[in-house]
Structure prediction request, 85 residues.
Amino acid sequence: MLESLSCGLPVIAYKAKGPKDIIEDGVCGFTVNTEEQMIEKIIRFLGNPKQQESFRKAAAARAKHYDVDRILEQFMTDVGLRNCQ
Prediction:
């Protein structure tokens, strides 16, 4: 999922732990509850070039929130291993 987003590829996934935490529904992809919802979202998305472009940009931006260096730096700060004198 993160690899797709980092390439600017919007993601559609079932609303479950993981996808629902990462995908901004209606911004960089979709989260759905059923197969029927998935089909509907895909059809609408493919028929909307403006939304496709918007989602591509948002997907790439969203992936940057999960950059390994950023996450590690935040972790080190949170556990008190950064800025120690």
Remarks:
- The mean pLDDT is 93.
- The first helix runs from residue 2 to 6.
- The chain is about 55% helix and 10% strand.
- Strands lie at 11-14, 29-32.
